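Quick sanity check, GntR family transcriptional regulator:
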Amino acid sequence: MQCMSIECRQGLHAMYTRLMAVSSESQPGSAHAVYVALRHRFAEGRYAPGQRLTEAALAADLGVSRTPVREAIGRLLAEGLVIPAARGVAVAALTAVEAEHLFVLRATLEGLAAELAATRQGRGQLAPADIDALDRAVDAVEAAVQTHDAHASAQANLALHRAIGAAAGNPFLEDTLHRVWDRIAVTTVANLDDPHWAGAITEQHRAIVAGIRAGDPEAAGKAAKAHIEAAGRAYKPAPENEPRGAAAAQPAR
């Protein structure tokens, strides 16, 4: 039996993450398991831009030796999620130019995802439960924002965008979006720490879902693209002349 619904696919993604995490019995303490666990933390925005990460602290936190942590950090360096820093690495902060490039890419990709989701809805390929799941995800973001917890809001926001990506039904697009979301997660937490922006996103989210529900690719895509473009305008990166990965940042705990 194929797993077609949004919630089913998200459940499989979460299951995969858990299976590949450090606590996995099949690959305990492996470099790949550590890498997956750290990528998951980046996606959730648990590390702040410039925050210093050391092998010793990460190994103790994850309950593994330093060797797999060192290998995982090497992969994160290659992907640009961290940069070299004194006695370890630091979470890569985005310059204004980098943020602009990423938001342009994200607006295009998420606009396409919303269009594809709406197209599938118009063809009867999305179940009513799938649309209801999107509505619940929007409600979850709104509820999280009202707690004024930027990290909880960021996690709920990511879950909504992942649900829209899953509704698009294109695994290659979805995989690309996951990589972009990981890279830009630090901006999401920063944005949602701004009460003005946090208060504006619910209406924008509902416009995207309304377009998908109506089976209107143009409306859904336009709303999604406008939402990401607004997020890009709201994001205020650190000055480009500020050292990235400042040594003053606190190590991960």
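Posting the structure with no commentary besides this: Residues 96-234 form a domain with the Four Helix Bundle (Hemerythrin (Met), subunit A) fold (CATH 1.20.120.530).
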